[in-house]
Automatic annotation (TrEMBL), chain A:
Record keywords, A-Z: Amino-acid transport, Cell membrane, Membrane, Transmembrane, Transmembrane helix, Transport
Native organism taxonomy: Bacteria, Pseudomonadati, Pseudomonadota, Alphaproteobacteria, Rhodobacterales
A biological-process GO annotation: amino acid transport
Species name: Paracoccus thiocyanatus
InterPro entries: ABC_transp_permease, BCAA_transport_permease
Name of protein: Amino acid/amide ABC transporter membrane protein 1, HAAT family
PANTHER family documented for this protein: ABC TRANSPORTER PERMEASE PROTEIN, BRANCHED-CHAIN AMINO ACID TRANSPORT SYSTEM PERMEASE PROTEIN LIVH
Taxonomy, superkingdom: Bacteria
Membrane topology: Multi-pass membrane protein
TM ranges: 9-30, 36-55, 85-106, 115-138, 174-194, 215-239, 259-279, 300-318
TrEMBL record, chain B:
UniProt key word Transit peptide: no
Signal peptide: 1-21
CDD domains per record: PBP1_ABC_ligand_binding-like
Domain of life: Bacteria
Pfam families membership: Peripla_BP_6
Domain Leucine-binding protein residues, every copy: 25-386
Keywords on record: Signal
Statement: the UniProt record of this protein carries the keyword Signal: yes
Protein name according to UniProt: Amino acid/amide ABC transporter substrate-binding protein, HAAT family
InterPro entries linked to this entry: Leu-bd, Peripla_BP_I
Family: Belongs to the leucine-binding protein family.
Length: 326, 426
């Protein structure tokens, strides 16, 4: 029975890892295309989820400001928008956000050191956090786009009949796995087999060289930030469905960091494999070792695991080895 | 020329200096950060009650109350900064809504002679006024809460918890660890098995803890959570089909923001509370008339009547009553913090007084003294109705098991007194 229970923990760890990987994917996309570590990726997930709820519930954006400025009491348009349409509209908002970021921030920083771009994304994170609150309010919002939650009775019954112990698998985690697999396949296909994808990789290798062969750096950046915005939306939907849309959603970026350290900052499959290893490792450690050290080991153990990998493979499992000769 | 300069300088000083006549009650709030959704509602209730007193009664004893707000983001360092920044402004009392900040402020307020009022949070043993001269935590503290929860379970089980299994899911912080000692002692007394399951803050990911609960099948789960940890835990409980009526949160795990994101699956979830909820109290007529309708409510009054708004308002009610008592004792409306401490120690909020305020049966009777800074410790239970989207009170106010708690409070506070070199008073 102990073995079966450990297997259940392992399976759930893998599923949790997929959820972490969904966040890590956004980081990888932007880093791969521009060499920028986008500190704002977690906040983008929060902003996307807030916008989605706002659109679905027909909330008036900036209602507090409007009410304060004009002495009125508006909060809702009085309509609701179906989930799929709202997701589409939110994706468009994220494209709009990418255009604004490119025009107001990135355009002015072409050719700057990566650390400058990193600092810009820190500023962007704080700005987006405030903008989201001002637009949609800081209250905890319920998100329901129709994704099922709770124990999968099929899995429970099947494992019970087969092994004599019914496994717990959350249906939301199953959906997250399917969506993550589809997302990774689409992203890998896009970057390997399309003109824009190849251009994206060229920009990642060398901005100046890419410009010299006629690739529009601005277009590529808008495209990459739009895709990262869409990935943030997917992560926001999954995590928002799980525990409501609220500030803490932006902190899931902390869960993505060890995944990136382990999987590599430049590999899309690396983000998935890294997520799986972290998810599985932290859950098994909590199960076997946690009780001996007082429990609650998951947050720090993920980083310890990533650091161990870092010692042996600094570029991560799937990252590109950088050799600089002088 | 000299006269003109002197007049200008005097005018500038008068404009820059705070209005010293006001009663200053800083609001160390948090409207941002991971716990902002909770802190916002509490801060609104706190501000709005003082606004009501100012607008309706012209303040307390003819003195207006000022509540300068300082954002702590639930961060201990920022909380201390806020304290340092506001204490020179004639501040009388602090209510930072954070156990971490409270622990840092305890030695500071004792030196600065400011009152620290921490209803339902902070250092439990501060109930012992002999040691903690400047700290008050009535009407109830964490140990009271743990004991009332166990008393409720005893009631549900015909007075016998022998052989029952209870799991404690707690925020892995100073706050979350507070009830452990009490529950361990109560476990020894009543014969139930206690399993402790810490959750690292903020607490979005709790799969391991809930898989263990699913495997161990405890009869009851008690939760000491805050912020997203609450929503995640209630969702995970629903996911593993843990019966909601056997799941009890502390009062900080019992607000609308904790259950609404979980939807229908949260139906039946219970929590402790030491204050009433909803707007079905006469006070809210005045709140509407003097604060909300004239547009003077915090954030437009959107959270009026919510669980956390009501608790913030209740904290303001207790402070206002202590100020009133202090004014009466000191014979002046412009009281100092040491006089307010005397007011707290002489405080007696009877059920009749609560009804007079417009909040009948809103909270337990609060009677404090030099040695008792924690009141009666009474609390009650509420249950969530997911369809009606509201809490219903399901028990009367219940007293905790003082036989177990009193020795613990004496032991902990005396250890602190020894460590801090304090000679017990009273």
């Amino acid at each position: 029975m102990e073995f079966l229970y450990a297997s259940e923990i392992l399976l759930n760890g893998l599923m949790a890892g997929v959820m972490y990987a969904l966040v890590a994917l956004g980081f990888v996309l932007i880093y791969k295309a521009s060499g920028v570590f986008n500190y704002a990726q977690g906040v983008m997930a929060l902003f996307a989820a807030m916008t989605l709820v706002g659109i679905m519930e027909g909330r008036v954006p900036f209602a507090h400001l409007i009410n304060a400025a004009f002495g009125v009491h508006v909060s809702s348009f009085g309509w609701t928008v179906p989930g799929l349409l709202a997701i589409l509209l939110t994706a468009l908002v994220m494209v709009g956000l990418a255009i604004v970021i490119e025009k107001l921030v990135l355009k002015h920083l072409v050719g700057q050191e990566p650390i400058i771009l990193f600092m810009a994304t820190i500023g962007l994170a704080w700005f987006l956090e405030g903008l989201g609150d001002v637009m949609w309010g800081a209250d905890v919002k319920m998100l329901d786009v129709g994704l099922p939650q709770g124990i999968s009775e099929t899995v429970e019954t099947a494992t019970n009949n087969w092994l004599g112990y019914g496994f717990f698998i959350d249906r939301l985690d199953i959906w997250a796995t399917v969506i993550a697999a589809a997302l990774v396949a689409a992203l890998v296909g896009f970057s390997q087999y399309t003109k824009q994808g190849r251009a994206m990789r060229a920009v990642a290798d060398d901005h100046q060289a890419a410009l010299s062969v006629g690739i529009s750096l601005r277009f590529i950046w808008i495209m990459v930030w739009s895709i990262a915005g869409f990935v943030a939306l997917v992560a926001g939907i999954m995590w928002g469905t799980k525990s409501g849309v609220q500030f803490s959603l932006s902190l899931i970026a902390l869960k993505a960091l060890p995944v990136l350290m382990l999987g590599g900052f430049t590999s899309i499959p690396g983000a998935i494999v890294g997520g799986l290893i972290i998810g599985m490792g932290e859950k098994l450690f909590e199960y076997f070792i946690g009780p001996m050290v007082g429990g609650a080991t998951e947050n720090w153990f993920a980083y310890v695991l990533a650091l161990i990998f870092l010692v042996f493979r600094p570029q991560g499992l799937f990252g590109e080895r950088i050799i600089e000769r002088v | 020329m000299k006269l003109k300069l002197a007049t200008v300088a005097l005018g500038a000083v008068m404009a820059a200096a705070p209005a010293m006549a006001d009663l200053v009650v800083p609001n160390l709030s948090y409207r941002t950060g991971p716990y902002g959704a909770n802190g916002t509602q509490y801060a609104d209730g706190f501000n709005d009650y003082f606004t009501l007193l100012n607008e309706r009664d012209g303040g307390i004893g003819g003195e207006k109350v000022r509540t300068p707000e300082c954002e702590t983001a639930y961060n201990t360092e920022k909380g201390v900064e806020c304290y340092e920044a506001t204490k020179g402004d004639g501040a009388l009392v602090y209510n930072p809504l954070s156990t971490g900040i409270t622990y840092q402020l305890i030695p500071k307020v004792s030196v600065d002679q400011k009152v620290l009022y921490t209803p339902g949070y902070g250092r439990t043993s501060a109930k012992n006024g002999k040691v903690f001269e400047w700290i008050f935590n009535a009407p109830a503290n964490y140990w009271d809460g743990a004991s009332v929860a166990i008393k409720y379970l005893l009631d549900q089980n015909g007075g016998d918890l022998n052989g029952k299994k209870i799991a404690l899911v707690y925020h892995n912080s100073a706050y979350g660890k507070e009830p452990i000692r009490t529950l361990q002692d109560l476990s020894a007394k009543h014969g139930f098995t206690l399993t402790e399951l810490p959750v690292d803050p903020p607490g979005q990911e709790q799969k391991s803890q809930w898989l263990q609960i699913r495997r161990d099948k405890p009869d009851y789960v008690i939760m000491w959570g805050w912020g997203v940890m609450n929503q995640a835990a209630i969702q995970e409980a629903a996911n593993i089909r843990f019966p909601m009526e056997n799941f009890i949160g502390v009062w900080w795990s019992g607000s609308e923001v904790d259950v609404l994101p979980v939807g229908a699956a949260a139906h039946g979830y219970k929590s402790l509370t030491f204050n009433g909820v909803g707007t079905d109290y006469p006070l809210y007529d005045d709140m509407q008339k003097y604060v909300v309708e004239p547009g003077k409510a915090s954030q437009g009054g959107q959270f009026v009547g919510s669980s956390l708004y009501s608790r913030g308002m209740y904290a303001a009610v207790v402070i206002a009553e202590a100020i009133r008592k202090a004014q009466e004792l000191a014979g002046t409306a412009q009281i100092t913090a040491p006089q307010l401490r005397d007011g707290f120690e002489a405080l007696d909020i009877t059920p009749e007084r609560l009804a007079e305020i417009g909040l009948p049966d809103f909270g337990p009777e609060i009677k404090m003294s030099c040695d008792n800074h924690g009141g009666s410790g009474m609390a009650r239970l509420q249950q969530w109705d997911a369809e009606a989207k509201k809490w219903s009170l399901i028990t009367e106010f219940t007293a905790p098991d003082q036989e177990v708690l009193d020795p613990l409070i004496v032991e902990d506070s005396e250890a602190y007194a020894k460590e801090a070199g304090i000679s017990p008073r009273c």
